[in-house]
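tool_call: predict_structure(chain=1)
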Amino acid sequence: MGKCAENAIPVGQQRSKVVFLAIVLMNLWVLVLMVLETLIALAISPLLLVLWLLATRWPVSKIMRHFIWMYGRVWLWIVSPFIRLKVTGTDCSRHNGPYIYVANHLSFFDIFFLSAMPVFDVVICLRSWPFKLAWYAPFMRWAEYVDVERLPWEQIVQRMQRLFDEGRSILLFPQGHRSRDGQLGRFYSGAFKLALHFNVPIAPICISGTDQMLPRGRRWMSP
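tool_result:
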């Protein structure tokens, strides 16, 4: 008994090893499958675009928003072995728009989790840096995502006028950047100015827990 007790691994140490292995497995799983998903999407997107055009007669921008939404749905499946996702209060999304969705911002992956929304035809307004990601930038531009950092306010208003006239909804992160400590930061006023200017209702989205998966400043994911 004495020798067994001496050789036994403390419970805390065992738990640490299990957590470490889970983190390694998660990062390998998500990274490999995400790269595969992206490569497959890049390869088949021209064919899918033609098929979607023939089948739906939608404009290219709407088809691209649908592609991006489906890409996000596949990503949700990829992370599902490690992440518990709960979505509530989506009733307003099923009503006719347009809406101005405003979401808090905790993690790089927030925009991926937004594919859990029941609607896909939403134009996302972002800062400039995502448009520099070579494998995503063309699709974002074809989807008419808005670079709010590059465009002057007058051009943003013109873009919004056209989108709202077409019945499109938009989504913004009014904090402007990811939270540094998981707390809700100061909001910029742009989304609310647009709501007042165009008399379009605001639909708030609360994102919780994504900072535990990948907080700002960290380079690996955690379950």
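agent: The beta strands are 100-103, 122-126, 146-147, 169-172, 202-205. Proceeding to next step.
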